[in-house]
Amino acid sequence: MDVSGLVWAGTLVALTAVLLVDLLIIGRRPHEPSVRESSLWVAFYVGLALIFGAGLWLTSGASVAGQFYTGWLTEYSLSVDNLFVFVIIMARFGVPRQYQQKVLLVGIVLALVMRGGFIAAGAALISQFSWVFYIFGAFLIYTAVNLARQGEPDEDEFSENLLIRWSRKALPISKDYDGAKLTTHSAGRRLFTPMLIVMIAIGTTDLIFALDSIPAIFGITQEPYLVFTANVFALMGLRQLYFLLGGLLDRLIYLSYGLAVVLGFIGVKLVLEALADNNLPFINGGEHVGWAPHIPIWLSLLVILGTLLVATIASLVKSSRDRRRELAEARR
Questions:
Q1: Bridge partners, residue 190, by sequence
Q2: What pLDDT shows up at residue 62?
């Protein structure tokens, strides 16, 4: 796929403009969006992704569009998993609901910046060293196993990382929030508000999730343009999705297992591709492994979509049964 500098520039300008609209809305009127507002925004962003993929289909063919849709779906599902941690952070630090939009938007911008850097680094490594797929594949399989073991995190399991603990000790932090501001004045002193700690928590969480998501999408496509746009479209609308899902997140109890299967599948796919292009002397004498199958993009899309669909349906069925059981026990 040959993407010109003009197309890159146009894409960046258009996506930046959409983000600026989000910034202006939150800056002028911080609030907790309604279900209707959140639904419209999520539908808008999903529609944009679908239209973008259709444009790729018309200009570059079905294969390129399929790679985009598969990558976008994978990154979107991983972004939904991020929301579990965001919910915990918001609850842990007692962020007022009307200011959570700003926190989420800052987190999304930080994620975009970090993922942009990782995408550039990953593309450079892959172009020079095909054996990087072995590392990416092994990392994804390791992540999948850990995710399957741990399940979704809860507030009791959340532990502040080293940077958060250092910030609490080294920086003058006020006890209370001052709107969505990062600094405030108290007794003639300028203090940082707890909002700064929340931003640090969100930023470090974004860094950790970027380490998972970038190898995952490189397992689907190695085109930097598709990797970048799939990530951007997956992150857009995440803020509204946070408020739309609300309590539904607690009901997606099997989502982590579904994501573990997806990451494990992509990890195996990466290892198979590395074997097919092998040039490491200590593996098969440096020769390509002929028996390593190529997994087509349509099969990847079916596996990922089917796994996420089964995990979601199973989660909703299980949570509904548990709720009915709780209501029946309460009536006794």
A1: 185
A2: 92
Question: Whole-angstrom Cα distance, residue 15 to residue 138?
Answer: 33
Q: What is the 8-class DSSP label of residue 171?
A: S
Identity of residue 322: D
Q: What is the DSSP annotation of 107-163?
A: HHHHHHHHHHHHHHHHHHHHHH-TTHHHHHHHHHHHHHHHHHHH-S--GGG----HH
CA 213 to chain centre: 7
The candidate with the shortest Cα–Cα distance to 93, out of 188, 190, 189, 167, is 167
Read off the pLDDT band of 247 (50, 70, 90). Answer: low
**Is residue 281 within a helix (H) or strand (E), and if so which, with residue range?**
none
- Tell whether the model's pLDDT for residue 58 goes beyond 90: yes
Kindly report the number of other CB atoms within 10 A of residue 170's CB atom: 8
| Residue 86 pLDDT class (50, 70, 90 cuts) | confident
Q: How far apart are CA 59 and CA 139, in angstroms?
A: 34
Per the structure block, which two tokens stand in for 277? 């292009």
- Which of 170, 161, 145, 246 lies closest to 204, judged by CA? 161
Q: Of 190-194, 225-229, 303-307, which range is least confident? A: 190-194
Q: Identify the pLDDT of residue 17.
A: 87
Report the mean per-residue pLDDT for the chain. Answer: 82
Rounding to the nearest 10 degrees, give the CA dihedral for residues 217, 219, 221, 225. Answer: 40
Is the pLDDT confidence value at 79 over 70? yes
The set of residues, in sequence order, having a beta carbon less than 8 Å from that of 74 and lying 6+ positions away, is: 213, 216, 217, 220, 230, 262, 266, 304
Closest-CA residue to 83 (of 31, 37, 38): 38
pLDDT band at 56 (very low <50, low <70, confident <90, very high): very high
Residues 6+ apart with CB under 8 A from 271: 133, 134, 137, 138, 141
